[in-house]
Amino acid sequence: MRLAIIEGDGIGREVIPAAVEVLDAFGLELEKVPLELGYARWERTGTAMSGEDIKTIKGCDAVLFGAITTVPDPNYKSVLLTIRKELDLYANVRPVKPLPGIKGVTGKNNFDFIIVRENTEGLYSGIEEIGHDLSWTKRVVTRKGSERIAEYACKLAKQRNNKLTIVHKSNVLKSDKLFLDVCRQVASSHGVEYSDMLVDSMAYSLMMRPEKYDVIVTTNIFGDILSDMCAALVGSLGLVPSANIGRKYAFFEPVHGSAPDIAGKGISNPLAAILCVKMLLEWMGNPGASVIDEAVADVLQNKIITPDLGGTSTTAEVGHAVAEYVKYALK
């Protein structure tokens, strides 16, 4: 298997080496392909990512990605959106699960759900026009896009508690009626128990009763907003991993940004990037992936944590501690 390693910008250059150390602890036969993409490269060369880079990525099976800085410059093309479209990574998967000893804004720790977001269309279609007096973006919802994200969500639901919640805004956005109808049809065909909620009601319910939910499927922008919001349940964006899944490729990234204000200080939290390694291993079908949960719980219990969690450990020290636990557990 070939794995593209893209540190990106800012703290991506710190958390990804920590995550790679954990990955290496599994002793797998992987060909790691390092690539430099992002704003720092764009500043230096005028190109954030080239066609040759895309070709190299397509020659890999998966990508482990750090963070990217996107600037409001019309000449700067989004690296993430380009990769998602080129690799047809149609499913964004965001697990929302508490970590031992860490409480989020609600103080609850009895939830464990997954947000599955359609990742290639909706308001992120890229079809837009910017004008002086009028700007618009075309919202695209297709039967194909709705069917395949519903299929993916139902597959996850069947592996868990067979419950699916479809999130939409079809009372106002009539294009969501297609998404809702297709998701209902797919869930019915798979024998998955389903319900649906309007996105605004869902946002409230997730904060008040997150334990009610198991697998949530929704459109692109709603999933983007809800999944970042739900990081508050866990305690921080720095603790939440994500996956972008396609039929052929997969792309794993922590959901925090490049955080230039703390970049280079060695204090960024690598746990989200390390949990991305767990998702990568699960995608690969590696049965030892769950040992990462044990390792993360161990470093949290022993207070080997970065300053954002009240500790004094560096990014590299946390990564090393998790890697050492994995090595010992797999002996």
Automatic annotation (TrEMBL):
<dbReference type="GO" id="GO:0004449">
    <property type="term" value="F:isocitrate dehydrogenase (NAD+) activity"/>
</dbReference>
<keyword id="KW-0479">Metal-binding</keyword>
<keyword id="KW-0464">Manganese</keyword>
<keyword id="KW-0432">Leucine biosynthesis</keyword>
<keyword id="KW-0520">NAD</keyword>
<dbReference type="InterPro" id="IPR019818">
    <property type="entry name" value="IsoCit/isopropylmalate_DH_CS"/>
</dbReference>
<comment type="subunit">
    <text>Homodimer.</text>
</comment>
<dbReference type="GO" id="GO:0009098">
    <property type="term" value="P:L-leucine biosynthetic process"/>
</dbReference>
<keyword id="KW-0460">Magnesium</keyword>
<dbReference type="InterPro" id="IPR024084">
    <property type="entry name" value="IsoPropMal-DH-like_dom"/>
</dbReference>
<dbReference type="GO" id="GO:0003862">
    <property type="term" value="F:3-isopropylmalate dehydrogenase activity"/>
</dbReference>
<dbReference type="GO" id="GO:0006099">
    <property type="term" value="P:tricarboxylic acid cycle"/>
</dbReference>
<dbReference type="GO" id="GO:0051287">
    <property type="term" value="F:NAD binding"/>
</dbReference>
<keyword id="KW-0560">Oxidoreductase</keyword>
<dbReference type="InterPro" id="IPR011828">
    <property type="entry name" value="LEU3_arc"/>
</dbReference>
<dbReference type="GO" id="GO:0006102">
    <property type="term" value="P:isocitrate metabolic process"/>
</dbReference>
<protein>
    <recommendedName>
        <fullName>3-isopropylmalate dehydrogenase</fullName>
        <ecNumber>1.1.1.85</ecNumber>
    </recommendedName>
</protein>
<keyword id="KW-0028">Amino-acid biosynthesis</keyword>
<dbReference type="Pfam" id="PF00180">
    <property type="entry name" value="Iso_dh"/>
</dbReference>
<keyword id="KW-0100">Branched-chain amino acid biosynthesis</keyword>
<comment type="similarity">
    <text>Belongs to the isocitrate and isopropylmalate dehydrogenases family.</text>
</comment>
<dbReference type="GO" id="GO:0000287">
    <property type="term" value="F:magnesium ion binding"/>
</dbReference>
<feature type="domain" description="Isopropylmalate dehydrogenase-like">
    <location>
        <begin position="2"/>
        <end position="322"/>
    </location>
</feature>
